[in-house]
Amino acid sequence: MKVKKVLVSQPKPATAKSPYFELASKTNIKIDFRPFIQIEGVSAKEFRQTRIQILDHSAVIFTSRTAIDHYFRICQELRITVPDSMKYFCVSEATAFYLQKYIVYRKRKIFYGNGKFADLTEVMKKHKGEKFLVPLSHIHKEEIPNLLEKGGFDFTKAILYRTVSSDLSDLKGVDYDILVFFSPSGIKSLQQNFPDFKQNDTKIASFGPSTAKAVRDAGLHLDIEAPTPQAPSMAMALEHYIKKHNK
Q1: Of the CATH numbers 3.40.50.10090, 3.20.20.10, 3.40.50.300, 3.40.50.720, which one belongs to the domain with range 40-163?
Q2: What is the pTM of this model?
Protein backbone atom coordinates (compact mmCIF):
# COMPACT_ATOMS: atom_id res chain seq x y z
CA MET A 1 0.00 0.00 0.00
CA LYS A 2 1.40 3.39 -1.01
CA VAL A 3 1.90 6.06 1.63
CA LYS A 4 0.05 9.32 0.93
CA LYS A 5 -0.67 10.89 4.35
CA VAL A 6 1.39 10.88 7.56
CA LEU A 7 0.44 12.27 10.98
CA VAL A 8 3.32 13.28 13.25
CA SER A 9 2.21 13.51 16.90
CA GLN A 10 4.26 16.64 17.62
CA PRO A 11 3.80 20.40 17.10
CA LYS A 12 4.45 21.70 13.61
CA PRO A 13 8.15 22.67 13.28
CA ALA A 14 8.78 26.39 13.62
CA THR A 15 11.53 26.39 11.00
CA ALA A 16 11.06 25.86 7.28
CA LYS A 17 14.24 23.77 7.28
CA SER A 18 12.61 20.87 9.09
CA PRO A 19 13.54 17.45 7.65
CA TYR A 20 9.82 16.63 7.61
CA PHE A 21 9.10 19.40 5.10
CA GLU A 22 12.01 18.18 2.98
CA LEU A 23 10.65 14.63 3.20
CA ALA A 24 7.16 15.73 2.11
CA SER A 25 8.60 17.59 -0.87
CA LYS A 26 10.99 14.79 -1.84
CA THR A 27 8.43 11.96 -1.66
CA ASN A 28 5.32 13.95 -2.67
CA ILE A 29 3.31 12.98 0.43
CA LYS A 30 1.24 15.04 2.87
CA ILE A 31 2.55 15.36 6.45
CA ASP A 32 0.33 16.82 9.16
CA PHE A 33 1.38 17.69 12.71
CA ARG A 34 -0.75 17.38 15.83
CA PRO A 35 0.52 17.11 19.44
CA PHE A 36 -1.09 14.10 21.14
CA ILE A 37 0.07 15.32 24.55
CA GLN A 38 0.38 18.66 26.30
CA ILE A 39 2.06 20.02 29.41
CA GLU A 40 -0.15 21.23 32.26
CA GLY A 41 1.29 23.14 35.20
CA VAL A 42 0.59 22.09 38.79
CA SER A 43 -1.41 24.86 40.47
CA ALA A 44 -0.04 26.95 43.34
CA LYS A 45 -2.67 25.39 45.61
CA GLU A 46 -1.54 21.86 44.69
CA PHE A 47 2.09 22.77 45.20
CA ARG A 48 1.42 24.26 48.63
CA GLN A 49 -0.08 20.93 49.69
CA THR A 50 3.29 19.24 49.10
CA ARG A 51 4.73 21.48 51.86
CA ILE A 52 7.92 21.92 49.83
CA GLN A 53 9.60 25.25 50.63
CA ILE A 54 11.44 26.52 47.57
CA LEU A 55 13.61 28.93 49.56
CA ASP A 56 14.82 26.10 51.83
CA HIS A 57 16.97 25.08 48.85
CA SER A 58 20.22 26.74 47.78
CA ALA A 59 20.38 25.23 44.28
CA VAL A 60 18.04 24.08 41.50
CA ILE A 61 18.60 21.27 38.99
CA PHE A 62 17.03 21.77 35.56
CA THR A 63 16.63 18.86 33.13
CA SER A 64 14.66 20.81 30.49
CA ARG A 65 13.36 24.20 29.40
CA THR A 66 9.89 23.12 30.52
CA ALA A 67 11.23 22.61 34.05
CA ILE A 68 12.69 26.14 33.99
CA ASP A 69 9.37 27.64 32.81
CA HIS A 70 7.37 25.96 35.56
CA TYR A 71 9.88 26.66 38.32
CA PHE A 72 9.72 30.40 37.68
CA ARG A 73 5.95 30.23 37.09
CA ILE A 74 5.31 28.66 40.48
CA CYS A 75 7.68 31.15 42.15
CA GLN A 76 5.70 34.01 40.59
CA GLU A 77 2.35 32.51 41.61
CA LEU A 78 3.58 32.04 45.18
CA ARG A 79 5.14 35.54 45.15
CA ILE A 80 8.56 34.10 45.92
CA THR A 81 11.59 36.23 45.07
CA VAL A 82 14.42 33.92 44.08
CA PRO A 83 17.65 35.20 45.70
CA ASP A 84 20.65 36.15 43.56
CA SER A 85 22.67 33.58 45.50
CA MET A 86 20.63 30.65 44.07
CA LYS A 87 22.81 28.22 42.11
CA TYR A 88 21.54 26.61 38.91
CA PHE A 89 22.68 23.23 37.57
CA CYS A 90 21.49 22.46 34.04
CA VAL A 91 21.72 19.23 32.07
CA SER A 92 23.12 21.04 29.00
CA GLU A 93 24.53 24.39 27.89
CA ALA A 94 21.41 25.05 25.77
CA THR A 95 19.20 24.54 28.83
CA ALA A 96 21.44 26.86 30.85
CA PHE A 97 21.22 29.62 28.23
CA TYR A 98 17.43 29.41 28.40
CA LEU A 99 17.68 30.80 31.96
CA GLN A 100 18.29 34.22 30.34
CA LYS A 101 14.53 34.40 29.87
CA TYR A 102 14.17 34.80 33.65
CA ILE A 103 17.47 35.97 35.18
CA VAL A 104 20.50 38.13 34.39
CA TYR A 105 22.68 35.27 33.24
CA ARG A 106 26.16 36.71 33.80
CA LYS A 107 25.42 37.63 37.43
CA ARG A 108 24.35 34.16 38.55
CA LYS A 109 26.12 30.96 39.53
CA ILE A 110 25.24 28.61 36.65
CA PHE A 111 26.74 25.19 35.95
CA TYR A 112 25.93 22.71 33.19
CA GLY A 113 26.69 19.25 31.84
CA ASN A 114 26.95 17.93 28.29
CA GLY A 115 23.39 16.64 27.93
CA LYS A 116 23.59 13.52 30.11
CA PHE A 117 22.32 13.62 33.68
CA ALA A 118 25.13 11.33 34.88
CA ASP A 119 27.67 13.91 33.68
CA LEU A 120 25.83 16.71 35.46
CA THR A 121 26.14 14.84 38.77
CA GLU A 122 29.92 14.85 38.23
CA VAL A 123 29.79 18.66 38.04
CA MET A 124 27.63 18.74 41.18
CA LYS A 125 30.17 16.79 43.25
CA LYS A 126 32.09 20.02 43.85
CA HIS A 127 28.94 21.47 45.46
CA LYS A 128 27.97 18.65 47.83
CA GLY A 129 27.01 21.13 50.57
CA GLU A 130 24.05 22.49 48.59
CA LYS A 131 20.41 21.57 49.18
CA PHE A 132 19.04 20.85 45.69
CA LEU A 133 15.50 21.26 44.35
CA VAL A 134 14.64 19.19 41.25
CA PRO A 135 11.57 20.41 39.28
CA LEU A 136 10.08 17.47 37.37
CA SER A 137 7.01 16.17 35.55
CA HIS A 138 4.87 13.53 37.27
CA ILE A 139 6.30 11.19 34.61
CA HIS A 140 10.09 11.37 34.73
CA LYS A 141 13.14 9.19 34.32
CA GLU A 142 13.86 7.27 37.50
CA GLU A 143 17.53 7.63 36.57
CA ILE A 144 17.40 11.20 37.93
CA PRO A 145 16.52 10.51 41.61
CA ASN A 146 18.49 7.25 41.50
CA LEU A 147 21.73 8.99 40.46
CA LEU A 148 21.19 11.75 43.03
CA GLU A 149 20.64 9.20 45.79
CA LYS A 150 23.65 7.19 44.67
CA GLY A 151 25.78 10.36 44.69
CA GLY A 152 24.69 11.19 48.24
CA PHE A 153 23.15 14.56 47.32
CA ASP A 154 20.64 16.34 49.57
CA PHE A 155 17.71 16.88 47.19
CA THR A 156 13.94 17.31 46.98
CA LYS A 157 11.80 16.27 44.00
CA ALA A 158 9.21 18.91 43.12
CA ILE A 159 6.46 17.86 40.71
CA LEU A 160 5.61 21.16 38.98
CA TYR A 161 3.94 19.96 35.78
CA ARG A 162 2.32 16.93 34.24
CA THR A 163 1.90 15.44 30.79
CA VAL A 164 -1.76 15.01 29.82
CA SER A 165 -3.53 13.75 26.71
CA SER A 166 -4.69 16.35 24.19
CA ASP A 167 -8.31 16.44 23.00
CA LEU A 168 -8.15 14.82 19.55
CA SER A 169 -11.89 14.56 18.90
CA ASP A 170 -11.52 16.61 15.69
CA LEU A 171 -9.36 13.82 14.21
CA LYS A 172 -12.22 11.31 14.22
CA GLY A 173 -12.76 9.91 10.76
CA VAL A 174 -9.48 11.34 9.50
CA ASP A 175 -7.41 8.60 7.91
CA TYR A 176 -3.63 8.48 7.83
CA ASP A 177 -1.37 5.84 6.35
CA ILE A 178 1.26 6.31 9.09
CA LEU A 179 0.96 7.55 12.68
CA VAL A 180 4.26 8.70 14.22
CA PHE A 181 4.87 8.57 18.01
CA PHE A 182 7.69 9.82 20.21
CA SER A 183 6.65 8.82 23.74
CA PRO A 184 4.55 6.27 25.63
CA SER A 185 2.28 9.20 26.58
CA GLY A 186 1.41 9.62 22.89
CA ILE A 187 0.23 5.99 22.70
CA LYS A 188 -1.78 6.49 25.90
CA SER A 189 -3.41 9.55 24.33
CA LEU A 190 -4.34 7.54 21.22
CA GLN A 191 -6.05 4.93 23.41
CA GLN A 192 -7.84 7.52 25.57
CA ASN A 193 -9.09 9.53 22.61
CA PHE A 194 -9.98 6.53 20.43
CA PRO A 195 -10.78 3.54 22.69
CA ASP A 196 -12.19 1.65 19.68
CA PHE A 197 -9.13 2.30 17.49
CA LYS A 198 -8.47 -0.51 15.03
CA GLN A 199 -5.08 -0.41 13.35
CA ASN A 200 -6.11 -2.28 10.18
CA ASP A 201 -3.81 -0.98 7.40
CA THR A 202 -2.49 1.99 9.38
CA LYS A 203 1.27 1.80 9.92
CA ILE A 204 2.79 2.92 13.21
CA ALA A 205 6.23 4.51 13.60
CA SER A 206 7.92 5.03 16.97
CA PHE A 207 11.05 6.75 18.25
CA GLY A 208 12.99 5.29 21.17
CA PRO A 209 12.79 1.93 22.97
CA SER A 210 10.21 3.01 25.57
CA THR A 211 7.81 4.19 22.84
CA ALA A 212 8.32 0.97 20.87
CA LYS A 213 7.49 -1.03 24.00
CA ALA A 214 4.34 1.06 24.59
CA VAL A 215 3.18 0.35 21.01
CA ARG A 216 3.58 -3.40 21.47
CA ASP A 217 2.09 -3.36 24.98
CA ALA A 218 -1.00 -1.68 23.49
CA GLY A 219 -1.39 -4.67 21.17
CA LEU A 220 -0.46 -2.66 18.08
CA HIS A 221 1.89 -3.64 15.27
CA LEU A 222 5.07 -1.57 15.00
CA ASP A 223 6.10 -1.03 11.39
CA ILE A 224 8.80 1.65 11.58
CA GLU A 225 11.27 1.94 14.45
CA ALA A 226 13.93 4.59 15.07
CA PRO A 227 16.66 5.28 15.86
CA THR A 228 18.64 2.59 14.07
CA PRO A 229 22.20 2.64 12.64
CA GLN A 230 20.67 3.08 9.16
CA ALA A 231 18.11 5.68 10.31
CA PRO A 232 19.25 7.72 13.34
CA SER A 233 16.28 10.11 12.96
CA MET A 234 12.56 9.56 12.53
CA ALA A 235 12.53 11.53 9.26
CA MET A 236 15.17 9.18 7.83
CA ALA A 237 13.29 6.08 9.01
CA LEU A 238 10.11 7.38 7.34
CA GLU A 239 12.00 8.17 4.15
CA HIS A 240 13.43 4.64 3.91
CA TYR A 241 9.98 3.12 4.47
CA ILE A 242 8.18 5.42 2.01
CA LYS A 243 10.75 4.96 -0.76
CA LYS A 244 10.48 1.19 -0.39
CA HIS A 245 6.65 1.13 -0.51
CA ASN A 246 5.97 3.98 -2.95
CA LYS A 247 7.93 2.56 -5.88
Answers
A1: 3.40.50.10090
A2: 0.78
